[in-house]
Amino acid sequence: MKKFFQKYLENRCEEDEFNLFVDLITKQGNENELSTNMLEDWNTMPLYDEAPDLSDTLHQIHYRINSQEVPVPRSRKMMTYLVRVAAVLFIPLAVTYFLQVYKGRNVPAVYQTVSTPLASKTSFQLPDGSTVWLNSGSSLRFPAKFVGGKRLVELTGEAYFDVAKNGDPFTVKTSRFDVNVMGTAFDVMAYRNEIPVVTLERGKVMLETRSGARDFLTPGEQAHIDTLQESITLSKVDTRIFSAWIHDRLIFQNEPLSAVVKRLERWYNVDIHVDDPSLMDLRLTANIEFESIREIMELMEITLPVKYAYNKDARKLTIYRKSTNANK
Predict the structure, then answer these.
(1) pLDDT, tens only, 258-275
(2) Which of 149, 157, 186, 207 is the most exposed place for a label (fewest CB within 10 A)?
(3) What's the CATH code, domain 111-247?
(4) CATH topology (fold) of 249-321
């Protein structure tokens, strides 16, 4: 248990490790071992001079519970699981709070992470008043309080930022590049295994890759970051297309099916397989707002030479080339 306990406090648990940790600490008979781990953390962790404001953290607890994908109607078993998850999330907060109140020494900053599962998104405010919209399958890590004259957040996936101006630089760090701003509105897409894209709506931002390549964006520009060549390519775009998702819309404008499939997978939480690789070069223009995945596929059958099969229970969808034989 000790290994999982420490990894959880440091926010390094994978999903399977987290589930195992939940089972371990809620299993009858493990109370003494859990108490021992908490006491060790109490005695070794340095402390704050004053108790922090935990309201933002409490919001994250509520968000994580509410964002669980549960079937309808909710069973007693699922509700019991969510209560157990809430208890797990509260453990490090309770330990930290009492340490801070009663011991008065300095510790490193406390970090929070907001994550969105597939087929969902959320918006929230950072400690400086900046607003963040977090797209599906994404996460953002940030300190409970920005200190030291800098505002640094770490992004995996896609987020739209409306940054509050306060004189301190604001940096979005991804695994492959950084975005540096003062006060501005922009979208960063940095999913794993996809070409990173930054779109600027207003203000000014500077991009910097891990190799030191730099470039500046002005409003209406979009940057594609080639992580192999460590280069940045700028182009003029309609920024409304790339920020429409924060208003519950997906806009495709002459996009290849390869890009459409990836966005639909995240938007609807489905696994899409394209049977014929040559179909990936087909182009789609569409405006999606409240349509179901079946409605989207029926639209594609009308506008593209494709047909589809959908297994709702497995959430798997296959796209085929439409036969040219009139008898089929």
Answers:
(1) 999 999 999 999 999 999
(2) 149
(3) 2.60.120.1440
(4) Phage tail protein beta-alpha-beta fold (3.55.50)
